[in-house]
Design goal:
Elements lengths: L2 H19 L12 H28 L9 H10 L6 H16 L3 H29 L1
């Protein structure tokens, strides 16, 4: 598959997921019902997965070689070339995603949802803006 097309196709899916996740701005975290909390956690997981994969595809397209492909390595490389502005937030996203995939605890959900709304969403917005400029 053409590398130019691959990152653009994946970005389209990322964009859809990001816009759904961004709806969290319209809610107060402490007022979300458990099902809504789970929904936003799932949206976050999907958006995060697509973000690092968009970055990987774009890095491939740009000629960057990542020897050991993992979310952490892709994020580090994307940060080093300016695709990701807030590397710390993206590393924290890895940790949050890993925690949520192994824990089913509504107290943790509330903590992660607050991080999503206050810290992660602005970092993802910057990431989104970078790629919108590339199109």
């Amino acid at each position: 598959m053409n590398k130019d097309i691959r990152w653009k196709q994946r970005f389209e899916n990322f964009e859809k997921a990001f816009k759904l996740l961004a709806e969290i701005k319209n809610y107060h975290i402490n007022e979300l019902k458990p099902l809504d909390q789970e929904g936003f956690i799932h949206r976050f997981e999907m958006t995060f997965e697509l973000s690092w994969k968009v970055a990987k595809d774009y890095l491939d397209y740009s000629g960057h070689i990542i020897i050991q492909v993992s979310p952490r390595q892709v994020i580090k490389e994307a940060f080093s070339v300016g695709i990701i502005k807030n590397g710390k937030a993206f590393i924290e996203m890895i940790e949050a995603r890993n925690l949520m995939s192994h824990t089913y605890d509504f107290e943790r959900f509330a903590e992660i949802l607050k991080k999503i709304k206050d810290n992660f969403l602005p970092a993802i917005q910057d990431f989104y803006d970078f790629f919108k400029e590339q199109l």
